């Protein structure tokens, strides 16, 4: 049976296919998808041991699983979720047919000596790359590490592998800034097309971090069936496409609302950190992509009500601009004047992190000193609207 959406999982070092419940929680947040989990390692339940397979064998297995899933489901959208060492395995495997790939807590490098040092502290075990190593785990099990595993780690440049993988799949990396397993993570050699999200949590994204992690992954992988309006260079409608199928050449429509009060203060909205594009950045109070059946005006009226609870507005028509950078669209601007405290707006929690009034001077200073926190369109809007 063909599945509309399939998610394959690549687990970390010395754990079972569910990655100690991490993958189970992620799967629960995507109930409409089919989930494929499998073990890389040899498990002996009677002896309570797990024997680690070399990374080359793990990569071969992932490549095989992905190929079988793709062959059995030629019309499905296939995504990949990886944790810790499973990210390196995926990058070695370079499976084909993937729409999106999400890495959680990926190692920034594969340094054998550093790995031994960290594991010696963590497990209190004497390591050798020449013999078999036995790691006594906190749950009472034993992880067996054969010499072939150490050999498979040699001459690997993890970030170079990640960059190569990102040439054929949309790669999102979620790092843990308090990672007690990997230590300080410096992903300083990544390609610019790889999206990196930081979370202040530990390696396994436990406790309060787990729900936030699943929300981020859900936002990245959810199948959006809305059909976006596609236009030509004259902004004439030429078709419609599902959002997840857009390519760089597709030109779409965006409506944006510039909200000010009677004193000239400007209302801005911070995008949710789970957003696929520009997570956490500040932008106009309201903006939205036009779907099939919508006009620029009907879209902005709808978005104003949904995103900040601003109902029954009569926005004034502003300029329309053509945007052609990493995104490709026309933006039709509207303006409206509202006298209302920021706390009285009702924000859409899955879209908007927060809203805040800025004076013109405050915003000009912020754009000069911290431009990385704001959408590029704000500088133009501040001068033109």
Short synopsis of the structure:
This protein is of the alpha/beta class and 385 residues long. It contains ten helices and 19 strands.
Structure notes:
The strands form 3 sheets. Strands 11, 12, 13, 14, 15, 16, 17, 18 and 19 form a 9-stranded mixed sheet that branches. A 6-stranded parallel sheet has the order 2-1-5-6-9-10, sandwiched between helices. The protein has a 4-stranded mixed sheet with strand order 3-4-8-7. By secondary structure, it is α/β, with parallel strands linked by helices. The protein has helices spanning 22-28, 55-72, 85-93, 112-123, 147-152, 158-165, 209-221, 296-308, 360-369, 377-384, and strands spanning 5-10, 34-36, 42-44, 49-51, 77-83, 98-104, 133-136, 142-145, 170-176, 195-199, 227-231, 237-242, 251-260, 266-271, 282-284, 286-289, 316-324, 328-337, 352-358. The longest helix is centred in the first third of the chain and has 18 residues, at 55-72. It starts with a strand and ends with a helix. Helix 2 crosses helix 3 (85-93) and helix 3 (85-93) crosses helix 6 (158-165). Strand 11 and strand 12 (237-242) form a beta hairpin.
Topology (elements, then pairings):
Layout: E1 5-10, H1 22-28, E2 34-36, E3 42-44, E4 49-51, H2 55-72, E5 77-83, H3 85-93, E6 98-104, H4 112-123, E7 133-136, E8 142-145, H5 147-152, H6 158-165, E9 170-176, E10 195-199, H7 209-221, E11 227-231, E12 237-242, E13 251-260, E14 266-271, E15 282-284, E16 286-289, H8 296-308, E17 316-324, E18 328-337, E19 352-358, H9 360-369, H10 377-384
Helix pairs in contact: 2-3, 3-6
């Amino acid at each position: 049976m063909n599945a509309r959406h399939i998610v394959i999982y690549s687990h970390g070092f010395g754990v079972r296919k569910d990655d100690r419940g991490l993958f189970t929680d992620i799967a629960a947040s995507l109930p409409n998808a089919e989930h494929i989990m499998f073990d890389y390692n040899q498990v002996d339940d009677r002896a309570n041991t797990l024997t680690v397979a070399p990374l080359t064998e793990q990569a071969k297995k992932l490549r095989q699983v992905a190929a079988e899933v793709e062959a059995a489901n030629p019309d499905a959208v296939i995504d990949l979720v990886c944790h810790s060492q499973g990210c390196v395995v995926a990058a070695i495997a370079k499976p084909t047919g993937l729409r999106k790939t999400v890495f959680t807590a990926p190692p920034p490098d594969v340094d054998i000596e550093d790995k031994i040092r960290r594991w010696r502290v963590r497990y209190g075990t004497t390591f050798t790359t020449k013999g078999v190593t036995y790691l006594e785990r906190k749950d009472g099990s034993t992880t067996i590490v054969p010499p072939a595993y150490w050999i498979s780690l040699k001459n690997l440049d993890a970030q170079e592998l990640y960059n190569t993988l990102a040439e054929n799949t949309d790669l999102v990396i979620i790092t843990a800034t308090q990672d007690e397993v990997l230590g300080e993570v410096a992903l300083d050699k990544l390609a610019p097309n790889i999206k990196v999200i930081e979370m202040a949590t530990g390696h396994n994204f436990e406790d309060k971090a787990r729900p936030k992690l699943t929300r981020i992954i859900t936002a990245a992988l959810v199948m959006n069936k809305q059909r976006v309006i596609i236009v030509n260079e004259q902004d004439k409608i030429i078709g419609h496409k599902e959002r997840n199928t857009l390519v760089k050449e597709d030109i779409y429509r965006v409506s944006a609302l510039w909200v000010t009060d009677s004193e000239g203060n400007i209302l801005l909205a911070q995008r949710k950190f789970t957003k696929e594009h520009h997570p956490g950045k500040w932008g106009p109070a309201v903006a939205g992509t036009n779907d099939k059946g919508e006009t620029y005006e009907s879209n902005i009226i709808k978005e104003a009500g949904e995103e900040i609870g601003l109902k029954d507005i009569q926005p004034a028509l502003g300029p329309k601009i053509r945007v052609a950078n990493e995104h490709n669209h026309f933006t039709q601007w509207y303006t409206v004047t509202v006298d209302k405290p920021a706390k009285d707006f009702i924000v859409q929690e899955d879209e908007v992190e927060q809203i805040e009034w800025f004076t013109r001077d405050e915003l000009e200073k912020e754009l000069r000193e911290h431009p990385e926190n704001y959408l590029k369109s704000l500088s133009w809007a501040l001068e033109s609207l």
